[in-house]
Amino acid sequence: MKETKRTALISAWNKQGLEDFAMGLSALGWEIWASGGTADVIGKAGVAVRRTEELTGISSILGGRVKTLHPELHASILADGEARELRTLDGKPVFDLVAVDFYPFYKAKDMDPVSRETIELVDIGGPTMARGAAKNWHHVISATGSDVFPLVLSTIQKELDDEHFRREMASRTFSITSAYDLHVSLKLEEGIAPALRYGENPHQKAAVHFSWPREGFGTAEVLGGKALSYNNYLDASAACSIAADFTGGVPCVVLAKHGNPCGVGCGDSAVDAFKNAFRADRISPYGGILACTSPVDMELVKELKGIFLEIVIAPEFDDDALARLQKRKNLRILRMSIDADSAHLQRSIFGGLLVQEPDLAVENAGECAVVTERKPSAEELVALDLAWKVVKGVKSNAIVIGDSSGTLGVGIGQPSRIESLDLAVRRALREGNDLSGSVLASDAFFPFRDGPDKAADAGVKAIIQPGGSIRDDEVIAACNEHGIAMVFTGTRHFRH
Predict the structure, then answer these.
(1) One of 135, 183, 226, 454 is an active-site residue; which one?
(2) What are the structural domains, with CATH classification, of the chain?
(3) For residue 262, is pLDDT > 60?
(4) Which pTM does this prediction carry?
Protein backbone atom coordinates (compact mmCIF):
# COMPACT_ATOMS: atom_id res chain seq x y z
CA MET A 1 0.00 0.00 0.00
CA LYS A 2 1.53 3.30 -1.06
CA GLU A 3 1.75 5.98 1.62
CA THR A 4 0.21 9.28 0.52
CA LYS A 5 1.56 11.50 3.27
CA ARG A 6 5.10 11.48 4.57
CA THR A 7 5.61 11.68 8.30
CA ALA A 8 8.34 13.22 10.45
CA LEU A 9 9.21 12.75 14.11
CA ILE A 10 11.08 15.67 15.66
CA SER A 11 12.66 15.84 19.11
CA ALA A 12 15.28 18.55 19.57
CA TRP A 13 17.05 19.98 22.58
CA ASN A 14 18.43 22.87 20.52
CA LYS A 15 15.37 24.74 19.27
CA GLN A 16 17.31 27.19 17.07
CA GLY A 17 15.95 27.07 13.52
CA LEU A 18 13.32 24.52 14.53
CA GLU A 19 10.39 26.67 13.36
CA ASP A 20 11.82 27.05 9.84
CA PHE A 21 12.50 23.33 9.65
CA ALA A 22 8.98 22.39 10.72
CA MET A 23 7.34 25.04 8.53
CA GLY A 24 9.33 23.83 5.53
CA LEU A 25 8.24 20.23 6.02
CA SER A 26 4.64 21.26 6.63
CA ALA A 27 4.61 23.31 3.42
CA LEU A 28 5.57 20.14 1.56
CA GLY A 29 2.57 18.35 3.04
CA TRP A 30 4.42 16.38 5.72
CA GLU A 31 2.66 15.32 8.92
CA ILE A 32 4.74 16.27 11.93
CA TRP A 33 4.94 14.48 15.26
CA ALA A 34 6.95 15.87 18.16
CA SER A 35 7.57 15.41 21.87
CA GLY A 36 7.34 17.78 24.82
CA GLY A 37 8.94 21.18 24.41
CA THR A 38 9.66 20.52 20.72
CA ALA A 39 5.92 20.21 20.05
CA ASP A 40 5.31 23.45 21.97
CA VAL A 41 7.76 25.42 19.82
CA ILE A 42 6.41 24.01 16.57
CA GLY A 43 2.83 24.63 17.60
CA LYS A 44 3.52 28.25 18.59
CA ALA A 45 4.99 28.78 15.12
CA GLY A 46 1.57 27.97 13.69
CA VAL A 47 2.50 24.54 12.35
CA ALA A 48 0.11 21.63 12.86
CA VAL A 49 1.81 19.09 15.10
CA ARG A 50 0.76 15.81 16.69
CA ARG A 51 2.19 14.99 20.09
CA THR A 52 3.94 11.68 20.70
CA GLU A 53 1.67 11.01 23.70
CA GLU A 54 -1.14 10.35 21.19
CA LEU A 55 0.85 7.27 20.22
CA THR A 56 2.46 6.35 23.53
CA GLY A 57 -0.26 7.32 25.97
CA ILE A 58 2.27 9.14 28.18
CA SER A 59 3.52 12.71 28.27
CA SER A 60 6.49 11.98 30.53
CA ILE A 61 7.58 9.74 33.38
CA LEU A 62 10.18 10.35 36.09
CA GLY A 63 10.08 14.10 35.68
CA GLY A 64 10.79 13.98 31.96
CA ARG A 65 13.40 11.24 31.96
CA VAL A 66 11.07 8.99 29.96
CA LYS A 67 9.09 10.47 27.09
CA THR A 68 10.04 8.65 23.91
CA LEU A 69 11.13 5.24 25.23
CA HIS A 70 7.97 3.42 24.17
CA PRO A 71 7.45 0.36 21.93
CA GLU A 72 4.75 2.01 19.80
CA LEU A 73 6.97 4.98 19.02
CA HIS A 74 9.93 2.80 18.13
CA ALA A 75 7.72 0.49 16.08
CA SER A 76 6.81 3.53 13.99
CA ILE A 77 10.53 4.23 13.50
CA LEU A 78 11.65 0.66 12.82
CA ALA A 79 8.77 -0.73 10.76
CA ASP A 80 9.86 -1.92 7.34
CA GLY A 81 8.39 -3.88 4.46
CA GLU A 82 4.93 -5.29 5.06
CA ALA A 83 4.98 -4.05 8.66
CA ARG A 84 4.85 -0.46 7.43
CA GLU A 85 1.77 -1.15 5.38
CA LEU A 86 0.07 -2.99 8.24
CA ARG A 87 0.69 -0.14 10.68
CA THR A 88 -0.68 2.34 8.18
CA LEU A 89 -3.82 0.21 7.71
CA ASP A 90 -4.21 0.19 11.52
CA GLY A 91 -4.14 3.99 11.50
CA LYS A 92 -0.73 4.18 13.14
CA PRO A 93 2.10 6.38 11.84
CA VAL A 94 5.29 5.16 10.25
CA PHE A 95 8.04 7.74 10.15
CA ASP A 96 9.91 8.72 7.01
CA LEU A 97 12.13 11.16 8.89
CA VAL A 98 13.45 11.22 12.45
CA ALA A 99 15.09 14.52 13.37
CA VAL A 100 16.81 14.50 16.75
CA ASP A 101 19.15 16.81 18.63
CA PHE A 102 20.75 15.44 21.83
CA TYR A 103 21.15 16.89 25.29
CA PRO A 104 24.31 19.08 25.42
CA PHE A 105 26.66 16.72 27.20
CA TYR A 106 29.56 19.04 26.32
CA LYS A 107 28.37 21.20 29.22
CA ALA A 108 29.60 18.49 31.58
CA LYS A 109 33.22 19.17 30.60
CA ASP A 110 34.15 20.79 33.92
CA MET A 111 31.57 19.02 36.08
CA ASP A 112 32.12 16.31 38.66
CA PRO A 113 31.66 12.98 36.81
CA VAL A 114 29.50 11.58 39.62
CA SER A 115 27.31 14.66 40.08
CA ARG A 116 23.58 14.64 39.45
CA GLU A 117 24.01 17.49 36.97
CA THR A 118 26.39 15.40 34.86
CA ILE A 119 24.10 12.38 34.82
CA GLU A 120 21.10 14.45 33.76
CA LEU A 121 23.01 15.63 30.68
CA VAL A 122 23.24 12.05 29.37
CA ASP A 123 20.66 11.66 26.61
CA ILE A 124 19.02 8.24 26.31
CA GLY A 125 15.87 8.74 24.26
CA GLY A 126 17.45 10.88 21.55
CA PRO A 127 20.29 8.51 20.59
CA THR A 128 17.88 5.56 20.79
CA MET A 129 15.49 7.13 18.28
CA ALA A 130 18.36 8.24 16.05
CA ARG A 131 19.93 4.79 15.98
CA GLY A 132 16.58 3.17 15.23
CA ALA A 133 16.05 5.50 12.29
CA ALA A 134 19.59 4.88 11.05
CA LYS A 135 19.07 1.13 11.22
CA ASN A 136 15.93 1.51 9.10
CA TRP A 137 17.62 3.80 6.58
CA HIS A 138 16.01 2.03 3.63
CA HIS A 139 12.81 3.81 4.65
CA VAL A 140 13.80 6.55 7.09
CA ILE A 141 15.97 9.67 6.94
CA SER A 142 17.96 9.89 10.18
CA ALA A 143 18.66 13.59 10.72
CA THR A 144 20.87 13.75 13.81
CA GLY A 145 21.90 17.14 15.17
CA SER A 146 20.04 20.40 14.57
CA ASP A 147 22.94 21.61 12.41
CA VAL A 148 21.89 19.20 9.68
CA PHE A 149 18.17 20.14 9.65
CA PRO A 150 18.57 22.85 6.93
CA LEU A 151 20.45 20.44 4.65
CA VAL A 152 17.83 17.74 5.12
CA LEU A 153 14.98 20.16 4.38
CA SER A 154 16.74 21.46 1.27
CA THR A 155 17.40 17.92 0.04
CA ILE A 156 13.75 16.94 0.51
CA GLN A 157 12.59 20.11 -1.25
CA LYS A 158 14.79 19.22 -4.24
CA GLU A 159 13.49 15.61 -4.15
CA LEU A 160 17.04 14.33 -3.73
CA ASP A 161 16.38 12.30 -0.57
CA ASP A 162 17.14 9.04 -2.30
CA GLU A 163 18.64 5.80 -1.00
CA HIS A 164 22.20 7.18 -1.21
CA PHE A 165 21.25 10.21 0.88
CA ARG A 166 19.46 8.09 3.50
CA ARG A 167 22.44 5.77 3.81
CA GLU A 168 24.78 8.75 4.16
CA MET A 169 22.58 10.17 6.92
CA ALA A 170 22.53 6.77 8.65
CA SER A 171 26.32 6.57 8.59
CA ARG A 172 26.48 10.11 9.95
CA THR A 173 24.12 9.20 12.78
CA PHE A 174 26.15 6.21 13.93
CA SER A 175 29.29 8.34 13.83
CA ILE A 176 27.63 11.00 15.99
CA THR A 177 26.15 8.54 18.49
CA SER A 178 29.47 6.70 18.86
CA ALA A 179 31.28 10.00 19.51
CA TYR A 180 28.58 11.00 21.99
CA ASP A 181 28.93 7.72 23.86
CA LEU A 182 32.71 8.10 23.92
CA HIS A 183 32.43 11.55 25.48
CA VAL A 184 30.15 10.14 28.17
CA SER A 185 32.49 7.20 28.75
CA LEU A 186 35.54 9.46 29.07
CA LYS A 187 33.71 11.62 31.59
CA LEU A 188 32.65 8.66 33.72
CA GLU A 189 36.21 7.29 33.55
CA GLU A 190 37.64 10.40 35.20
CA GLY A 191 39.25 9.21 38.41
CA ILE A 192 39.12 5.59 37.21
CA ALA A 193 41.31 5.62 34.10
CA PRO A 194 44.83 7.00 34.59
CA ALA A 195 44.97 10.79 34.36
CA LEU A 196 47.27 12.34 31.78
CA ARG A 197 48.84 15.67 32.69
CA TYR A 198 48.88 16.72 29.02
CA GLY A 199 49.25 15.39 25.49
CA GLU A 200 52.28 15.32 23.23
CA ASN A 201 53.10 18.84 24.41
CA PRO A 202 52.29 20.68 27.65
CA HIS A 203 49.76 23.00 25.97
CA GLN A 204 47.63 20.05 24.74
CA LYS A 205 45.01 18.37 26.93
CA ALA A 206 44.70 14.60 26.67
CA ALA A 207 43.00 11.54 28.11
CA VAL A 208 43.40 7.79 27.81
CA HIS A 209 40.45 5.52 27.07
CA PHE A 210 40.61 1.74 27.44
CA SER A 211 38.15 -0.38 25.49
CA TRP A 212 36.02 -3.15 26.95
CA PRO A 213 36.74 -5.95 27.49
CA ARG A 214 40.05 -4.70 28.88
CA GLU A 215 43.12 -5.63 26.86
CA GLY A 216 46.70 -4.45 26.61
CA PHE A 217 47.38 -1.40 28.76
CA GLY A 218 43.85 -1.60 30.10
CA THR A 219 44.93 -4.73 32.00
CA ALA A 220 48.33 -3.43 33.11
CA GLU A 221 49.20 -3.30 36.79
CA VAL A 222 51.28 -0.23 37.56
CA LEU A 223 53.69 -1.50 40.21
CA GLY A 224 55.77 1.61 40.58
CA GLY A 225 56.49 5.12 39.42
CA LYS A 226 54.33 7.97 38.15
CA ALA A 227 51.27 7.65 35.97
CA LEU A 228 52.04 7.19 32.29
CA SER A 229 51.97 10.19 30.00
CA TYR A 230 50.47 10.47 26.51
CA ASN A 231 53.89 9.96 24.92
CA ASN A 232 54.68 7.09 27.30
CA TYR A 233 51.64 5.19 26.03
CA LEU A 234 52.62 5.77 22.40
CA ASP A 235 56.21 4.59 22.94
CA ALA A 236 55.17 1.66 25.12
CA SER A 237 52.63 0.59 22.51
CA ALA A 238 55.33 0.63 19.81
CA ALA A 239 57.61 -1.51 22.00
CA CYS A 240 54.88 -4.02 22.81
CA SER A 241 53.77 -4.36 19.19
CA ILE A 242 57.27 -5.59 18.29
CA ALA A 243 57.70 -7.73 21.39
CA ALA A 244 54.37 -9.46 20.68
CA ASP A 245 55.89 -11.12 17.60
CA PHE A 246 58.56 -12.73 19.82
CA THR A 247 56.38 -14.23 22.55
CA GLY A 248 56.35 -17.97 23.04
CA GLY A 249 60.06 -18.43 22.31
CA VAL A 250 63.33 -17.46 23.90
CA PRO A 251 63.41 -14.24 25.96
CA CYS A 252 63.26 -11.05 23.91
CA VAL A 253 63.89 -7.44 24.92
CA VAL A 254 62.75 -4.41 22.94
CA LEU A 255 64.24 -0.99 23.65
CA ALA A 256 62.12 1.77 22.13
CA LYS A 257 61.93 5.54 22.03
CA HIS A 258 59.79 8.02 20.10
CA GLY A 259 57.71 5.22 18.62
CA ASN A 260 60.64 3.25 17.16
CA PRO A 261 62.94 0.47 18.34
CA CYS A 262 66.46 1.45 19.32
CA GLY A 263 67.34 -2.22 19.52
CA VAL A 264 65.80 -5.67 19.77
CA GLY A 265 67.57 -8.72 21.13
CA CYS A 266 66.93 -12.37 21.93
CA GLY A 267 68.89 -14.70 24.17
CA ASP A 268 68.86 -17.63 26.56
CA SER A 269 67.98 -15.27 29.41
CA ALA A 270 66.43 -11.84 29.85
CA VAL A 271 69.82 -10.28 30.52
CA ASP A 272 71.30 -11.85 27.39
CA ALA A 273 68.37 -10.53 25.37
CA PHE A 274 68.92 -7.06 26.83
CA LYS A 275 72.63 -7.07 25.99
CA ASN A 276 71.86 -8.11 22.42
CA ALA A 277 69.32 -5.28 22.14
CA PHE A 278 71.46 -2.63 23.81
CA ARG A 279 74.50 -3.22 21.58
CA ALA A 280 72.67 -1.71 18.58
CA ASP A 281 72.35 1.69 20.23
CA ARG A 282 73.76 2.55 23.65
CA ILE A 283 72.71 6.20 23.48
CA SER A 284 69.09 6.49 22.35
CA PRO A 285 67.47 4.11 24.91
CA TYR A 286 68.11 6.60 27.73
CA GLY A 287 64.69 7.94 28.61
CA GLY A 288 63.09 5.14 26.60
CA ILE A 289 61.00 2.00 27.09
CA LEU A 290 62.06 -1.56 27.84
CA ALA A 291 59.62 -4.36 27.02
CA CYS A 292 60.59 -7.90 27.97
CA THR A 293 58.69 -11.02 26.92
CA SER A 294 59.99 -13.07 29.88
CA PRO A 295 59.98 -12.42 33.65
CA VAL A 296 62.37 -9.69 34.79
CA ASP A 297 64.93 -11.08 37.23
CA MET A 298 67.64 -9.53 39.39
CA GLU A 299 70.33 -10.31 36.82
CA LEU A 300 68.61 -8.07 34.29
CA VAL A 301 67.92 -5.35 36.86
CA LYS A 302 71.61 -5.21 37.80
CA GLU A 303 72.48 -4.76 34.14
CA LEU A 304 70.16 -1.77 33.98
CA LYS A 305 72.14 0.13 36.61
CA GLY A 306 72.97 3.61 35.39
CA ILE A 307 70.51 3.46 32.49
CA PHE A 308 67.60 5.88 32.79
CA LEU A 309 64.37 4.34 31.56
CA GLU A 310 60.84 5.73 31.57
CA ILE A 311 59.06 2.36 31.63
CA VAL A 312 59.81 -1.32 32.11
CA ILE A 313 57.12 -3.72 30.86
CA ALA A 314 57.05 -7.47 31.47
CA PRO A 315 54.54 -10.26 32.13
CA GLU A 316 56.13 -10.94 35.55
CA PHE A 317 58.79 -9.63 37.91
CA ASP A 318 60.79 -11.62 40.44
CA ASP A 319 60.17 -10.23 43.93
CA ASP A 320 63.73 -9.05 44.52
CA ALA A 321 63.96 -7.55 41.03
CA LEU A 322 60.71 -5.66 41.55
CA ALA A 323 61.82 -4.35 44.93
CA ARG A 324 65.02 -3.02 43.38
CA LEU A 325 63.22 -1.39 40.47
CA GLN A 326 60.70 0.23 42.80
CA LYS A 327 63.50 2.21 44.38
CA ARG A 328 63.57 4.25 41.18
CA LYS A 329 60.82 6.71 42.06
CA ASN A 330 60.18 7.92 38.52
CA LEU A 331 60.33 4.54 36.78
CA ARG A 332 56.96 3.26 35.62
CA ILE A 333 56.76 -0.50 36.14
CA LEU A 334 54.02 -2.32 34.24
CA ARG A 335 53.08 -5.94 34.70
CA MET A 336 51.00 -7.03 31.74
CA SER A 337 50.66 -9.72 29.13
CA ILE A 338 52.35 -8.77 25.86
CA ASP A 339 50.07 -10.07 23.13
CA ALA A 340 49.33 -9.06 19.56
CA ASP A 341 46.56 -6.48 19.39
CA SER A 342 43.89 -7.79 17.01
CA ALA A 343 41.70 -4.67 17.25
CA HIS A 344 41.28 -2.43 14.24
CA LEU A 345 43.78 0.42 14.09
CA GLN A 346 42.37 3.94 14.10
CA ARG A 347 44.22 7.13 13.29
CA SER A 348 42.80 10.61 13.16
CA ILE A 349 43.39 12.73 10.09
CA PHE A 350 42.36 16.28 9.26
CA GLY A 351 38.57 16.09 9.51
CA GLY A 352 38.34 12.32 9.59
CA LEU A 353 39.47 8.92 10.75
CA LEU A 354 41.45 6.13 9.08
CA VAL A 355 40.60 2.56 10.07
CA GLN A 356 42.50 -0.57 9.09
CA GLU A 357 43.11 -4.13 10.16
CA PRO A 358 46.25 -4.65 12.27
CA ASP A 359 49.37 -5.92 10.53
CA LEU A 360 49.60 -9.35 12.15
CA ALA A 361 51.31 -11.12 9.25
CA VAL A 362 54.85 -12.35 9.89
CA GLU A 363 56.37 -14.28 7.00
CA ASN A 364 58.86 -17.07 7.65
CA ALA A 365 62.13 -16.55 5.80
CA GLY A 366 62.52 -20.27 5.21
CA GLU A 367 59.25 -20.32 3.30
CA CYS A 368 60.03 -17.29 1.15
CA ALA A 369 61.28 -17.30 -2.42
CA VAL A 370 65.07 -17.39 -2.79
CA VAL A 371 65.81 -15.20 -5.81
CA THR A 372 69.63 -15.26 -5.79
CA GLU A 373 72.19 -17.85 -6.79
CA ARG A 374 73.27 -18.34 -3.20
CA LYS A 375 70.74 -19.62 -0.66
CA PRO A 376 70.72 -18.37 2.94
CA SER A 377 72.39 -20.61 5.49
CA ALA A 378 70.43 -22.00 8.45
CA GLU A 379 71.89 -19.34 10.77
CA GLU A 380 71.14 -16.61 8.24
CA LEU A 381 67.52 -17.75 8.05
CA VAL A 382 67.21 -17.38 11.83
CA ALA A 383 68.70 -13.90 11.60
CA LEU A 384 66.47 -12.95 8.66
CA ASP A 385 63.37 -14.07 10.59
CA LEU A 386 64.38 -11.91 13.52
CA ALA A 387 65.16 -8.85 11.41
CA TRP A 388 61.90 -9.24 9.47
CA LYS A 389 59.86 -9.23 12.70
CA VAL A 390 61.63 -6.10 13.85
CA VAL A 391 61.43 -4.15 10.59
CA LYS A 392 57.62 -4.29 10.55
CA GLY A 393 57.67 -2.24 13.76
CA VAL A 394 60.00 0.46 12.43
CA LYS A 395 58.62 3.56 10.75
CA SER A 396 59.10 3.63 6.97
CA ASN A 397 61.42 3.77 5.18
CA ALA A 398 62.79 1.07 7.49
CA ILE A 399 66.06 -0.83 7.43
CA VAL A 400 67.20 -3.30 10.08
CA ILE A 401 70.65 -4.89 10.13
CA GLY A 402 71.24 -7.73 12.56
CA ASP A 403 72.31 -11.28 13.30
CA SER A 404 70.69 -14.31 14.92
CA SER A 405 70.78 -12.63 18.35
CA GLY A 406 69.22 -9.30 17.49
CA THR A 407 69.69 -5.95 15.85
CA LEU A 408 73.04 -4.33 15.09
CA GLY A 409 71.79 -1.13 13.47
CA VAL A 410 68.35 0.37 12.78
CA GLY A 411 67.60 2.97 10.11
CA ILE A 412 64.34 4.78 10.76
CA GLY A 413 61.90 6.76 8.67
CA GLN A 414 64.09 8.56 6.16
CA PRO A 415 62.47 9.87 2.95
CA SER A 416 64.95 7.79 0.93
CA ARG A 417 65.57 4.10 1.51
CA ILE A 418 69.28 4.48 0.86
CA GLU A 419 69.39 7.16 3.57
CA SER A 420 67.75 4.75 6.02
CA LEU A 421 70.34 2.12 5.08
CA ASP A 422 73.12 4.65 5.56
CA LEU A 423 71.73 5.53 8.99
CA ALA A 424 71.52 1.86 10.04
CA VAL A 425 75.15 1.28 9.00
CA ARG A 426 76.39 4.43 10.71
CA ARG A 427 74.65 3.58 13.97
CA ALA A 428 76.04 0.06 13.92
CA LEU A 429 79.57 1.27 13.26
CA ARG A 430 79.22 3.98 15.92
CA GLU A 431 78.62 1.22 18.45
CA GLY A 432 81.62 -0.77 17.17
CA ASN A 433 79.47 -3.57 15.76
CA ASP A 434 81.09 -5.79 13.16
CA LEU A 435 78.66 -6.19 10.25
CA SER A 436 80.61 -8.94 8.54
CA GLY A 437 78.19 -11.78 7.83
CA SER A 438 75.17 -9.76 9.02
CA VAL A 439 71.69 -9.79 7.49
CA LEU A 440 69.45 -6.95 6.42
CA ALA A 441 65.65 -6.49 6.35
CA SER A 442 63.90 -3.79 4.33
CA ASP A 443 60.21 -3.11 4.91
CA ALA A 444 59.65 -2.49 1.17
CA PHE A 445 61.53 -3.24 -2.02
CA PHE A 446 64.83 -1.66 -3.03
CA PRO A 447 64.11 0.63 -5.99
CA PHE A 448 67.75 0.60 -7.13
CA ARG A 449 70.84 -1.56 -6.78
CA ASP A 450 72.54 1.11 -4.66
CA GLY A 451 70.95 -0.50 -1.59
CA PRO A 452 72.53 -3.95 -2.01
CA ASP A 453 75.81 -2.31 -3.09
CA LYS A 454 76.02 -0.31 0.13
CA ALA A 455 74.90 -3.32 2.19
CA ALA A 456 77.67 -5.41 0.64
CA ASP A 457 80.26 -2.74 1.42
CA ALA A 458 79.15 -2.91 5.07
CA GLY A 459 79.50 -6.71 5.21
CA VAL A 460 75.86 -7.82 4.83
CA LYS A 461 75.56 -11.38 3.45
CA ALA A 462 71.79 -11.94 3.32
CA ILE A 463 68.76 -9.73 2.64
CA ILE A 464 65.03 -10.15 3.17
CA GLN A 465 62.66 -7.79 1.37
CA PRO A 466 59.22 -7.88 -0.29
CA GLY A 467 60.37 -7.57 -3.90
CA GLY A 468 58.11 -6.13 -6.56
CA SER A 469 60.24 -3.33 -8.00
CA ILE A 470 60.48 -2.81 -11.74
CA ARG A 471 64.23 -3.08 -11.14
CA ASP A 472 64.16 -6.36 -9.21
CA ASP A 473 66.40 -7.98 -11.82
CA GLU A 474 68.96 -5.22 -11.33
CA VAL A 475 68.85 -5.65 -7.55
CA ILE A 476 69.12 -9.43 -7.80
CA ALA A 477 72.09 -9.12 -10.14
CA ALA A 478 73.82 -6.84 -7.64
CA CYS A 479 73.32 -9.38 -4.87
CA ASN A 480 74.71 -12.16 -7.07
CA GLU A 481 77.79 -10.05 -7.82
CA HIS A 482 78.42 -9.61 -4.09
CA GLY A 483 77.57 -13.20 -3.10
CA ILE A 484 74.56 -12.01 -1.07
CA ALA A 485 71.65 -14.37 -0.52
CA MET A 486 68.28 -12.70 -0.91
CA VAL A 487 64.68 -13.80 -0.32
CA PHE A 488 61.45 -12.13 -1.39
CA THR A 489 58.53 -12.26 1.04
CA GLY A 490 55.95 -10.90 -1.38
CA THR A 491 54.56 -8.79 1.47
CA ARG A 492 55.57 -5.34 2.59
CA HIS A 493 55.21 -3.90 6.10
CA PHE A 494 55.01 -0.13 5.86
CA ARG A 495 54.50 1.68 9.16
CA HIS A 496 53.73 5.36 8.82
Answers:
(1) 135
(2) 7-189 (3.40.50.1380), 216-335 (3.40.140.20), 363-488 (3.40.140.20)
(3) yes
(4) 0.86
